[in-house]
Design the sequence.
């Protein structure tokens, strides 16, 4: 069965090479990705929105994204919005940390390292808010009343070039690009869910996780997606 | 004399990205601070006027951490001239004993690889600045 990614939060750090705050964004992003929320977060390098392919540019439309910037030029937030999708949340280091003795871009001072802790904590909190998870800070585990989550530290990997699969469908005579549709089709087909009314509801709900559907257009989207799914099943069979 | 622009990738998901970044710091801060200038890639992504002006018409050496070559592509898109494009992986192939690991914190091999990378960049910088002087 294809591995349809569960809902995760994307982290895009500016990584600004010329200032200590940029290094704070990079280190804080890595702290969240590797230690604080390893199973709930993914990342991508900011320049890939321009240098990568359509799948890379789909990143912020696929994942609710937190832009992490070092200064008020907000390259990560503005770049993500310009080329991928509006970030769901934004953190700017200079808003969070007032100490301006963070060291250099190359070597953070003790204050800089503390800034990483503070900023990473804020980002992790925003991850939880976006996923609707409450977090027991003393135990460093999800609230017991919430579904159990695995949280084992891991090495961060980026989504560079992994490309989120997209498919163009005709909805009401217009071309619409739907993110992750090929993966969703594969998953439904592998689960022997045949095209039909029962499948249509579940299928459109899954599509809606990754794609906004404008008000009043759900029926047209459902019809288009079911038409494409029927064609997909026919080809597979 | 215009400085040579050093543009490393801002790779965050691989050790090679950190090596690119560290190597760029070694060149611009330690080895050739007077003849080189670091250009942050995020500013080029945003189309920042000053960053574009810095690379426009200048000679740039790009350092990429993976085959997607973001640094090289961004400099080209920003109107700069890529005089040399280096890939960290190629440098590693020449120094197999320096295997990098870690992203937030490079291991010793990664730090040494960054230094080896910087040494290669410096040779190219000197060639470029020599060419300018002799022009």
Sequence:
């Amino acid at each position: 069965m294809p591995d349809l990614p569960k809902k995760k939060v994307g982290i895009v750090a500016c990584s600004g090479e010329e200032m200590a705050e940029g290094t704070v964004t990079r280190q804080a992003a890595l702290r969240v990705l590797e230690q604080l929320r390893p199973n709930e977060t993914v990342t991508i390098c900011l320049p890939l929105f321009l240098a990568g392919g359509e799948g890379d540019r789909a990143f912020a439309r696929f994942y609710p994204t937190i832009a992490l910037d070092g200064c008020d030029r907000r390259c990560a937030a503005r770049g993500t919005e310009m080329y991928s999708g509006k970030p769901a949340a934004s953190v700017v280091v200079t808003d969070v940390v007032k100490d301006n003795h963070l060291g250099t871009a190359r070597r953070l001072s003790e204050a800089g390292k503390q800034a990483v802790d503070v900023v990473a904590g804020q980002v992790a909190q925003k991850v939880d808010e976006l996923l609707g998870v409450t977090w027991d800070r003393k135990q460093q585990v999800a609230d017991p009343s919430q579904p159990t989550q695995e949280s084992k530290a891991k090495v961060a990997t980026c989504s560079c070039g992994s490309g989120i699969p997209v498919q163009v469908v005709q909805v009401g005579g217009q071309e619409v690009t739907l993110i992750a549709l090929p993966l969703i089709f594969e998953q439904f087909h592998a689960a022997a869910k045949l095209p039909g009314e029962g499948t249509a509801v579940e299928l459109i709900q899954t599509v809606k996780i990754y794609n906004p559907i404008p008000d009043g257009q759900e029926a047209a989207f459902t019809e288009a997606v079911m038409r494409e799914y029927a064609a997909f099943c026919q080809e597979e069979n | 004399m215009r400085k040579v622009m050093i543009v490393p990738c801002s790779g965050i998901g691989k050790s090679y990205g950190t090596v690119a970044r560290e190597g760029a710091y070694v060149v611009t801060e330690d080895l050739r601070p007077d003849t080189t200038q670091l250009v942050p890639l995020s500013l080029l992504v945003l189309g920042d006027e000053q960053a574009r002006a810095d690379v426009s018409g200048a000679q740039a050496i790009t350092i990429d951490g993976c085959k997607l070559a973001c640094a090289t592509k961004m400099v080209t898109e920003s109107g700069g001239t890529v005089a040399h494009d280096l890939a960290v992986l190629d440098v590693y192939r020449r120094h197999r004993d320096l295997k990098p690991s870690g992203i937030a914190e490079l291991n010793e091999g990664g730090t040494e690889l960054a230094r080896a990378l910087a040494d290669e960049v410096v040779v190219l910088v000197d060639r470029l600045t020599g060419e300018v002087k002799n022009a």
Remarks:
- The interface with chain A takes residues 8-14, 17, 21-22, 24-25, 29, 38-46, 48, 66-71, 73-74, 77, 103-104 of chain B (CB under 8 Å).
- The mean pLDDT of chain B is 92.
- Chain B is about 55% helix and 15% strand.
